[in-house]
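Hello again,

I reread your note about wanting to compare the complex against the isolated chains. To keep things tidy I'm splitting this into two emails, and this first one only covers the full assembly. Below are the input lines as submitted, including protein chains and any nucleic acid or small-molecule components. They are followed by the predicted structure of everything together. The single-chain runs will come separately.
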Amino acid sequence: MIHLGVNIDHVATVRQARRADEPDPVHAAVFCELGGADGITVHVREDRRHIQDRDLRLLRQTVRGTLNLELAPRESGGVMDLALEVGPDQVCLVPEHRAELTTEGGLAVSADDAKLRGAIDRLKARGCLISLFIEPDPATVAAAAAVGADAIELHTGTWANAWAACKGRAGDAKLERERARLRDAAHEAGERGLRLHAGHGIGYANVGELLALPLLREVNIGHSIVSRAVLVGMERAVREMKTLLG
Ligand code: PXP
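Full-complex prediction:
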């Protein structure tokens, strides 16, 4: 069974649009879990544009499944200290740029990156399982293993864009290329003993295709679930995705 992590950043984005106290991502997480989510994912960004420190602290107390924190592997902004204080079950290290709308591209990883290795070691010592959000590229998968990651989350954004452009049509050259990249990276993760996760751009229409990805254990999905939740409610939106995951 594939683990479904629901990313609830967008719930906090709506709240921050008015600097108000609703909707509360902590409440949203409860409905995600009632709908069958196996975990809750949040990204505490350096600029705190959506999820706040208070959200993470409360989620640590309320989430029953896996609490997965996305953060950039750097000291500025106090997010690393917050992670070490709160102790999420899982940390996904991501690149972060102030001007981006969402996480664009995967983390640059090289086997001899002492800073990255140091961040991983500190978080592991706190008991967090470490995942690196990377492009589907076998060399980057190998580097992730070398710096001590437990898991990789393959950035599926380019695949999702290719899928959307042709509606998943078999034989589309761009989509076939992206499918092959995901397969090759998945294979390398298996060879290196890394857990395989995927995230970005995954929705109700395209998720079925990922089920064929060998060794896939976890998907992290935000935009499509929260978008559906606005119309049908969070619990139902999550349950519908969970059903598609089988
Ligand atoms: N995984 C990671 C590492 C992300 O940064 C994001 C976006 O915040 C997601 C998954 C979820 O992507 P989406 O919102 O497109 O489902």
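For quick reference: Strands lie at 3-7, 39-43, 66-71, 90-93, 129-134, 151-155, 195-199, 216-221.

B.
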